[in-house]
Amino acid sequence: MRKNAEKQILIIKAGAPHSRYLRDLWEYRELFLILAWRDIIVRYKQTVIGILWSVLRPLLGMLVFTLVFGRIANLPSEGIPYPLIAYSGMLIWQFFSSTVTLGGESLVTNTNLISKVYFPRLIIPSTGMTVSLADFAVSAVLFIPLFLWYRILPDGRIVFLPFFLILTAAVSLGVSYLISAWNVKYRDFRHAVPFALQIGVYLSPVGFISGIVPEKWRLLYSLNPLTGIIDGVRWCLFGTPLYLPSLGLSVVLSVLLLAAGYFTFRSMERRFADEI
């Protein structure tokens, strides 16, 4: 009896339907965890003080902003000690900038992985956020001695803090997806991103409260989604005033940025293996 051997060929096509792609993201969750852990280990490998860099970066930023804006410029702080204002802003900014920096470079630094095996490429820039979250968790511990030193304790509004962290993650991931995709096609982005982040830290209310912005410009200033987020974090921790139009814009812009980043990444993903 003659048997015909049939060969089954699996063809993987880029640009899979979004429903199947999202299912693939869940099925490859273990790969996400492996890459995330690898990134955390590599970040602090062969460093002298290791994870303490997570505290030193925002701490030094707090000292600089306190000196420049709090002492020299003597900007108002709604009755809150200026170091607390500056440190809270630095934590959110560090979370954002670290995610964007790591995510933006991630596809270029994982060329061999992309060209050899199939998996949802969106996993790669997403792992940068886990490193940023680890840094954020370690840095946030410094709030304990700061609160004790200044004798300030958060009230019940602190329960809303995770909401603003989710917004920060959405903005950070959206921008990371955009930059990582564009960085594959246009390598100039790897030089432009650090420069943009250096400017962005001063255009965001990191070292000052947004209330000092004149009222006629405040809505325009709130088009920076980090403005409402940083104001919200300070509202949760210290009870400083919350500008509701800015919060509303931050929510809308966070969702739009995340959606724009996802769909832009997906539209360009099919060409990554050829262009990288």
Q: If you had to describe this structure to a student in words, what would you say it looks like?
A:
This protein has 276 residues and is mainly α. It is 71% helix and 0% strand. It contains 13 helices and no strands. The protein has helices at 18-27, 29-44, 53-72, 82-109, 111-116, 123-140, 143-150, 161-185, 189-203, 215-221, 225-238, 244-269, 272-275. Residues 1-12 have low confidence and may be disordered.
Overall geometry comes to globular
Share of residues in helices = over 70%
Pick out the low-confidence regions. Answer: 1-12
How many beta-strand segments?
0
Put simply, the count of helices is 13
Main beta sheet: strand number and arrangement?
none
Radius of gyration from the CA trace?
A: 21 Å
Please identify the structural class as seen in this structure: mainly alpha
Q: State mean pLDDT (0 to 100 scale).
A: 85
Could you state the order of secondary-structure elements as H and E? HHHHHHHHHHHHH
Terminal Cα separation, in Å? 50 Å
How much of the residues is beta strand, in percent? under 5%
